[in-house]
Every structure is written in C-alpha cells, then in structure tokens.
Write a structure and sequence with these properties.
- The chain is of the alpha/beta class and 595 residues long.
- It has two domains: 14-215 and 495-525, no CATH class; 229-483, TIM Barrel (Alpha-Beta Barrel), CATH 3.20.20.190.
- It contains 22 helices and nine strands.
- It has helices at residues 14-24, 39-64, 69-80, 87-113, 122-145, 151-185, 189-208, 245-253, 285-288, 302-305, 312-317, 328-334, 342-351, 373-384, 399-405, 419-424, 439-447, 460-468, 479-482, 494-523, 531-542, 565-574, and strands at 229-233, 258-265, 271-273, 355-360, 391-393, 410-413, 429-433, 451-455, 473-476.
- The chain has an eight-stranded parallel beta barrel with strand order 1-2-4-5-6-7-8-9, surrounded by four helices.
- 29% of the residues are buried.
- Its main location: cytoplasm.
- Keywords: Cytoplasm, Glycoprotein, Hydrolase, Membrane, Transmembrane, Transmembrane helix.
- The chain crosses the membrane at residues 43-63, 86-114, 126-146, 152-177, 189-209, 498-518.
Length: 595
C-alpha cells in the first residue's frame, strides 16, 4: 500500500489564464482542459467565423459608403420626416461590433494554437448572436432602402484592391502558423491531407487574385488625363446652407468650375432654388407658417417664401459636421440666409464666368404654371444676360423649344443610353450618378466626344479613380476638399504593379514554407512521446532556468514490494500532471524514507 502527500507549487501563467478567462471565464487552472472541443462548441466557432466575415464585409461597405452619408440621411428623412445624422452612429456601432467579434476570433484561434478546449462563455454567445442578427438586419435594410449603393463596393475595389491583396496575404501567412501546427500534430493522414489541400486552394486563389483586379489607376503616368472639373452641389453645402447665395459665393471663392442648383417655380411664378419638395428641413416654415409646412414648396407665394430663414437649420443640425470650423462672421452670415432666387444666382455666375447646371422639380398638377414653367425659367435665364455657353440644360421636356430659343445652351442628358443615340439627338454631355457607369462606359462616351459629369463625389479616393478613368467633371458637396487634390492618391505603372504583386506572393510563399518546416520539426515528433516522456523532457529543458517551478514532494511511509501495476497507475493518476501548466517535477528525498 502506498501513502503519499502531494505538495504542489505552480508557476503563474498570466497569459494563459487571461486567454481562457476572457474567452470562457475559466480563470482557474483546474477549469482548463486539453480535451477535444465538443461538437456544440465547434458549432459556435463556426457561427463566430461567419459573423466575423459578415461584420468585416459590412464594415468595409459602410466605410466605402462614407461618400454618400448625406444621401442616406436624406432617404431616412423622406421616410421618417425627421432629419438626423444616422450615418455616424451606424459607423461607430459597426466598428465596435466588429472589434468585439474580431477579439473573440483572435482568442479562439489562440485557444486552438495552444491546444486549449474551446468553451465560449454564455455572455459572449449572447453578444455574438446579437451582433449577427444586427448585421443581418442592417444588410437587409440597405437592400430595401438603398439597393443601388451596393455598387460602391466594386467601385472601391478599384482603389483598395491592390492594398487589400497585400493585407490578405499577410493575414493568410500569419494563419499558416496555426495551420502548420494542426498539420504537424495530427496523426491521421486523411486529416492532414484535408488541411493541406484546403489551405493550398485558398493560398493559390489569393496569389492569383490580382489577375482579376482592374483599376484605372494602374496606368502609365504619361497617360493621365486632365484633372476633372468640379461643380458645387447646391453651392458649397459643407461651408454654408445649401442653395443659398452664401453657399454659391463660397463655391466661387474655391474657384470651382461650375455650380449646380435645383429650380422650383413659386405659386406666383418666381423661379427660386430648393431641393426638397417641402420646406420643413431647410427653413423655419413651421414657426412662420405652420399651416403650410406640409405643402409643396411651389404652392407658396414668393412674398411668403422670401420671409423664411434658410440658415438656422444648418447651424442646428450641422449636416456635415463642419459648423465648428466656421469663423464668427461666417457663422452669423449663415444663420441669416434666406431663400435664393434663380435670378440672383445667375447674376453671381455671370459675374464670375461660372458654368451653371440646372435641375428642375416637377410641379403639382394643380400648379397654375405647370404648363409654362419652362418658358418662365428660360425667360429668367436669358434676362440675366449670362452667356448661353455657360448654361448646361438638363430636362428632356421641351428640349426642342429650348434649342430654338437658346441654341447656345449645352444640351445635357440625365439618362444613360447609347452614345450614338445621344449624338444623333445633339446631346453634348451626360450627368449621371457615379454608380451607374463603368470604365467601359466612360471610354465609349469619350470616344464619341461626349463629356461626362458624375455626382455626388465627395471622397478623394473616388475623385482619384474617376480622374484616372478620364471623367471630365464631377459634382461635389466637398469642393473645398477636392480642389486640394492635385494628383491621384496613387498611380502605378503596370510593370511596377506586377513587380509588387509577384514579390509579395514570393515572400509569402517562402515564409509559409519556412513555418511549415519549423512546425513539423517542433511538433512532429511529440506524437510518439508518452506523457511521462514529455514531462521528463520539460524538466530537463527548464531545470537550469531561474524561475518558480512546481515542486511535488512524495512522502512514503511504507513501500510494498508487491505493489502491482494498478497501484503504479493510481499513483500517476493522482499526481494530476498537466503538460502545459506544470513546468517541472522534482522528486525530493525525505529524511524519513526507509530503503
């Protein structure tokens, strides 16, 4: 019969405790396990992986859509009747959710690397489920409300794909350490083959992805076209209230090529500038004339319209987060703006030789000038004395009449159609949303000598892509920012791009081969060791280190010479060795031991 008294001292393992504690709330040593992960926990790891990829894609989309946040807010305003900047809270929430899921993913991979059993805590499972459902709801909502915006992903790839490729190479190369470890530890040849083939397929696909990358900025520098001209979208709406005289003055100060405005005819026949169908968002009509708040803006007389304030909403809502940058004088001026007449804007454009791009709102059926609003607008333009070649005429209705009355206008179409048909109709240019045209479309229109203006372009990366694609002009809310872009953000000759691509692939492949060899050398032979050999080798390697080690003292009061194998096994099982937690076992002779 063997009697023993274990006295154990463990080396602190802070990193491992934090790893298992944060992931599964298993802070104590006895709570950890090297057993195989259960099928249920593997299922949760699969959900975690899917959620990670989904939130990553959603975060990339919402970052890319930053160019159109104002448009998104306007869509929600039309549905809810309440103006607020929803884009930034969504961005912050998305970033926080992705950071949380990414942290869980890293912890899970670390568990696999150190061969710890996965056991996700129930609170994390709740957080994971909430994040997954929220992301699915967000994606579904965008599909219903803003479906055309998905094209921004493919457009942004033209700017980011070369860099995303290098980042993906780095991630897959780092992941090879984990893959190689699983490959080396596995004793099943079939499992090894599956791991190797799956990883190899992903790797080869990633190495060949650049064959599918097409960006207009991969070109020779000598082929770069002239810088696209800039139209101010409703003036300079980041620096002053939109469609106001101050907004157009700020735009001209930026030396923009042209200005874009939205024209409406008042009930008594005065053309003025307003984008929305009602005046709730951009004026104080609810305070001045609450009974007219829901009326179409064209159903109100100019005598009432000119009394409204169109600046306080800009200061109160700060739609572009730029009000804090205004000087005191600009702040005061912005707060005292009124609705701008078309004639006043045309006079400003005439004095500064600025091109004018006009959009027109459709009038209600019971509007008294519904059938004559084109004539009224034409008369106002001609009476202003602005040179006809500075006016880009967009409406398709009454185009023949316009050609007769004002043959010098630049006839522009807002519909994407065949280039030959446009030329046959004597159309000189196109005004389209940037998501509706491809690089091939731009080349075709340029071949037919059709100028292209794309809206609304606010980000420097998007402006750079369109510059490389040979777009002639863009409409922007951020004219003051784009005017400072003197060169595309990046421009690579094809030879340089191919060199970067091939070099990155070769470096990645070399590192991965080295990692597989190292992991095979480190872990491949451990499969043939029994637990006692592993612990003995650990003791030999660590005996000379000046660290706190686990000591176990066995005090024998009686040794039975007839002890059988079952008693040996009992002694080993009671020792509670852990190959990763217990560092060294040092038997110490006790003075009372009798031999």
């Amino acid at each position: 019969m063997v009697k023993h008294q274990p006295l154990q001292y463990y080396e602190p393992q802070l990193c491992l405790s934090c790893l298992t504690g944060i992931y599964g709330c298993r802070w104590k040593r006895y709570q950890r396990s090297h057993d195989d992960t259960t099928k249920w926990e593997r299922f949760w790891f699969l959900i975690l992986s899917v959620t990670f990829l989904l939130t990553l894609g959603w975060l990339y989309f919402w970052w890319s859509a930053h160019n159109d946040y104002d448009e998104f807010n306007w869509i929600l305003y039309n549905r809810t009747g309440y103006w607020s900047d929803w884009s930034i809270p969504i961005l912050v929430t998305t970033a926080a959710g992705f950071t949380y899921i990414a942290a869980l993913m890293i912890l899970a991979l670390c568990h696999i690397a150190v061969r710890q059993q996965l056991n996700l805590h129930w609170l994390h499972k709740v957080g994971l489920a909430v994040t997954l459902v929220a992301t699915i709801v967000a994606v579904t909502s965008i599909e219903q409300l803003w479906k055309e915006e998905w094209n921004i992903i493919f457009i942004s790839f033209q700017a980011t794909a070369p860099f995303l490729h290098i980042g993906a190479l780095a991630a897959v190369t780092l992941l090879s350490w984990l893959i190689a470890g699983q490959f080396a530890r596995s004793e099943k040849a079939f499992f090894q083959v599956c791991i190797f083939i799956a990883y190899l397929v992903i790797l080869v696909a990633l190495y060949l992805v650049p064959l599918t990358i097409s960006s207009p900025c991969i070109m020779e520098k000598k082929d770069l076209a002239a810088r696209p001209a800039i139209f101010g979208h409703r003036g300079a709406p980041m620096l002053a209230p939109e469609n106001t005289l101050m907004s157009f003055q700020k735009l001209i100060e930026q030396k923009a090529y042209g200005l874009q405005a939205d024209v409406v005819i008042s009930y008594d026949g005065v053309p003025f500038l307003m984008h929305d169908s009602t005046l709730q968002r951009t004026t104080n009509i609810e305070d001045m004339f609450p009974e007219l708040a829901f009326e179409h803006s064209s159903m109100i007389n100019w005598t009432d319209l000119e009394r409204l304030n169109t600046g306080q909403w800009f200061l109160n809502t700060d739609p572009f987060w730029t009000v804090s940058s205004l000087s005191p004088s600009d702040y005061f001026e912005a707060g005292n703006q009124s609705i701008c007449k078309l004639a006043d804007m045309l006079q400003l454009a005439k004095e500064n030789n600025t091109v004018v791009l006009l959009n027109f709102q459709a009038l209600p059926k019971d509007h008294p000038h519904r059938s004559t609003y084109m004539n009224i607008t034409l008369q106002t333009i001609l009476a202003s004395g602005i040179p006809q070649q500075l006016v880009m005429w967009l409406p398709d209705s009454e185009r023949q009449l316009v050609r007769q009355v004002a043959p010098g206008f630049q006839q522009t179409s807002g519909d994407k159609t065949n280039a030959r048909l446009l030329r046959d109709r004597d159309i000189r240019g196109l005004n389209l949303r940037y998501t509706k045209v491809t690089s091939e479309d731009i080349r075709e229109y340029n071949a037919w000598n059709l100028s292209i203006n794309l809206y609304t372009v606010n980000e420097a990366w998007l402006y750079s892509i369109l510059w490389c694609a040979r777009v002639q002009s863009v409409t922007s809310d951020a004219s003051h920012l784009l005017s400072k872009v003197s060169y595309p953000i990046w421009l690579l000759p094809p030879d340089e791009y191919y060199l970067i691509w091939i070099t990155s692939d070769l470096v990645s492949f070399t590192v991965i081969i080295g990692i597989f060899i190292l992991q095979k050398w480190r872990l491949g032979s451990i499969r043939t060791y029994n637990p006692e050999q592993i612990m003995l080798s650990a003791a030999v390697r660590r005996a000379s280190r000046d660290v706190k080690i686990m000591k176990e003292k066995l005090i024998f009061s009686e040794i039975n010479s007839s002890m059988d194998n079952s008693e040996d096994l009992s002694l080993c099982s009671e020792s509670r060795y852990d190959g990763y937690s217990n560092e060294v076992i040092t038997p110490m002779d006790h003075p009372d031991v009798r031999t």
